[in-house]
């Protein structure tokens, strides 16, 4: 009997549970009228998705938090101007991206990390599991920006590729092909790293 | 590592991240923007550049299609009948878009003729020149029937006048001043079918119909076989009122072809002192046959029979 339990148990087959992202666009008009409960609601729904997006841009936890903060502040400032277009998450991402690009223009440089540096990287010190850390870092450093955005959003939110495409302003076929290419790249890098 | 595991590790790492921003954000003083700026501006479905490109492309396409439609849409149809029968189609800008020969003689006239970019007047003159070269028009006894169709009746009337003037002016130096008959015709599908059936132009068919209206006993299948000069000559001889289609000064110029005169005279001689021929169509004369009765109805029937006979001889 004990033999059978070892065979059956498999930690990797745990289901990932997602927080469904469904944003009522009326939240923005309520936020515009200074209804902060509406903002609370928006924040709870979008927090992790926006973090994943901000992380794919900045590749640094602290910078991602700053970007998130500034994004939500701008949302509050401009919520009364929001026009419903059926893509509320896309608006958040647009604000985050524009803020990031504005910062880049001011700072003038982007740092890319080599694969050898990943092991010593302290920017993700909050991640306790080494495998989690390794996979995250590969996703952030070895994929293109769009590839990492797509993979992270899919992993964190479980959004359909169609909805990811809309939120990122990409075509569906582009999104699908980038996703598969990203997964393939990550598998190769991860196998390489396991070899090392 | 498979896809599922990769996604799981990513999800776990992101969900572990310590994020405590809500209160910090809410504590920040709230400033409302007056309008969107470059950070908060919402994107349309298409970027403005793409949108402008699409609009410009649609505009260019619409212009091309409109131009093609304008250029290719027939506005006027002009029929030239001498013996060759020709149809010239032109657009609103009076540029010729097509020429069709309606009989084999017409085919030879338009063979190898290039009309692209030329106006209605220019093409009409060119074709008249070709008719002169082919000796279909050589003297002032010759007839040309110019028929014009246009939805705008006023325009049709003006065009027929212009074309007549242009032809006469062009031929004057060559000392040829043919009789030009002009007609404005109505569009009718029925007429189209009949014209196709008899292989004549709508202009000639309209003339035939006018003649038949004036003399109902004349048959279309007889009249359609007559060349233009005999058709008009017959009408003149029968003193049919063609003032609607032919101006008086032109009607005076028309010479009744000898063929018709001779045939009618012979028939008149034959009728004097002879019993009436045994013919179902002929109206029986009550008087003696000493005097030929001046009865236009009998004459018409005789002309019809003689015309049929002449036509058989010609064939």
Verbal overview:
The complex is a heterodimer of chains A (196) and B (315). Chain A has 196 residues and is mostly helical. Chain A is built from 9 helices and no strands. Chain A has helices at 2-8, 26-32, 36-58, 61-78, 88-107, 130-141, 145-157, 161-168, 172-195. In chain A, helix 3 runs antiparallel to helix 4 and helix 3 (36-58) crosses helix 7 (145-157). The longest helix of chain A is centred in the last third of the chain and has 24 residues, at 172-195. In chain A, 41% of the residues are buried. The model of chain A is unreliable at 1-13 and 115-120 (pLDDT under 50). By secondary structure, chain B is an alpha+beta fold. Helices cover 51% and strands 10% of the residues of chain B. A 5-stranded mixed beta sheet of chain B has the order 3-2-1-4-5, sandwiched between helices. In chain B, strand 2 and strand 3 form a beta hairpin. The N and C termini of chain B lie far apart (97 Å). Residues 273-297 of chain B have low confidence and may be disordered. At the A-B interface, helix 3, helix 4, helix 5, helix 6 and helix 7 of A face helix 1 and helix 2 of B.
Using the CA coordinates, give the radius of gyration of chain A: 19 Å
Succession of helices and strands of chain B: HHHEEEHHEHEHHHHHHH
Which spans of chain B have pLDDT < 50 for at least 5 consecutive residues? Answer: 273-297
Element pattern of chain A in H and E: HHHHHHHHH
Helix content of chain B: 40-55%
Question: What does the radius of gyration of chain B come to?
Answer: 37 Å
Low-pLDDT stretches of chain A are 1-13, 115-120
Mean pLDDT of chain A: 84
Percent strand of chain B equals 5-15%
Task: Record the SSE blueprint.
The complex is a heterodimer of chains A (196) and B (315).
Chain A: H1 2-8, H2 26-32, H3 36-58, H4 61-78, H5 88-107, H6 130-141, H7 145-157, H8 161-168, H9 172-195
Helix pairs in contact in A: 2-3, 3-4, 3-5, 3-7, 4-5, 6-9, 7-8, 7-9, 8-9
Chain B: H1 3-16, H2 22-27, H3 48-72, E1 76-81, E2 85-90, E3 96-101, H4 104-110, H5 120-133, E4 143-150, H6 153-171, E5 179-185, H7 189-198, H8 202-214, H9 220-223, H10 228-237, H11 248-253, H12 258-271, H13 296-314
Parallel strand pairs in B: 4-5
Antiparallel strand pairs in B: 1-2, 1-4, 2-3
Helix pairs in contact in B: 5-6, 7-8, 12-13
């Amino acid at each position: 009997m004990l033999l059978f339990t070892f065979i059956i148990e498999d930690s990797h087959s745990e289901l990932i549970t997602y927080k469904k992202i469904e944003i009522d666009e009326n939240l923005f008009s309520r936020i515009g009228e200074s209804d902060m409960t509406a903002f609370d609601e928006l924040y709870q729904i979008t927090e992790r998705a926006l973090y994943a997006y901000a992380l794919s841009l900045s590749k640094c936890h602290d910078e991602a938090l700053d970007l998130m903060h500034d994004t939500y502040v701008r949302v509050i400032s401009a919520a009364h101007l929001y026009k419903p277009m059926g893509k509320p998450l896309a608006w958040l991402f647009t604000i985050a991206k524009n803020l990031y690009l504005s910062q880049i223009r001011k700072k003038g440089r982007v740092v890319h990390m080599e694969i050898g540096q990943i092991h010593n990287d302290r920017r993700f010190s909050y991640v306790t599991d080494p495998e989690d850390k390794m996979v995250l870092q590969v996703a952030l450093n070895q994929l293109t920006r769009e590839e990492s955005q797509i993979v992270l959003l899919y992993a964190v939110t479980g959004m359909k590729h169609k909805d990811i495409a809309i939120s990122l302003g990409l075509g569906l076929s582009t999104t699908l092909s980038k996703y598969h290419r990203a997964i393939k790249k990550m598998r190769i890098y991860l196998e390489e790293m396991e070899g090392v | 590592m498979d896809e599922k595991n990769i996604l799981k590790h990513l999800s776990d790492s992101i969900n572990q991240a310590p994020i405590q921003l809500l209160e910090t954000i809410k504590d920040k003083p709230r400033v409302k923007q007056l309008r969107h700026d470059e950070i908060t501006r919402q994107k349309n479905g298409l970027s403005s550049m793409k949108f402008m490109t699409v609009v410009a492309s649609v505009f260019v396409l619409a212009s091309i299609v409109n131009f093609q439609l304008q250029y290719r849409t027939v506005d006027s149809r002009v029929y030239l009948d001498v013996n060759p029968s020709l149809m010239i189609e032109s657009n609103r800008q009076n540029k010729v878009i097509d020429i069709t020969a309606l009989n084999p003689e017409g085919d030879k006239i338009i063979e190898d003729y290039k009309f692209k970019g030329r106006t209605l007047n220019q093409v009409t003159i060119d074709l008249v020149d070709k008719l002169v070269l082919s000796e279909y028009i050589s003297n002032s006894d010759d007839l040309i029937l110019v028929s014009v169709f246009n939805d705008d009746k006023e325009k049709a009337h003006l065009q027929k006048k212009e074309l007549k003037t242009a032809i006469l002016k062009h031929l004057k130096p060559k000392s040829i001043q043919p009789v030009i008959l002009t007609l404005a015709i109505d569009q009718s599908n029925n007429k189209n079918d009949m014209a196709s059936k008899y292989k004549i132009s709508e202009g000639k068919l309209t003339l035939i119909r006018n003649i038949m209206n004036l003399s109902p006993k004349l048959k279309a299948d007889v009249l359609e076989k007559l060349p233009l000069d005999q058709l008009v000559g017959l009408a003149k001889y029968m003193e049919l009122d063609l003032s609607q289609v032919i101006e008086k000064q032109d009607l005076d110029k028309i010479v009744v072809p000898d063929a018709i005169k001779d045939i009618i005279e012979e028939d008149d001689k034959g009728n004097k002192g002879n019993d009436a021929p045994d013919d179902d169509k002929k109206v029986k004369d009550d008087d003696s046959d000493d005097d030929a009765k001046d009865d236009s109805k009998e004459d018409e029937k005789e002309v019809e029979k003689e015309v049929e006979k002449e036509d058989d001889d010609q064939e």
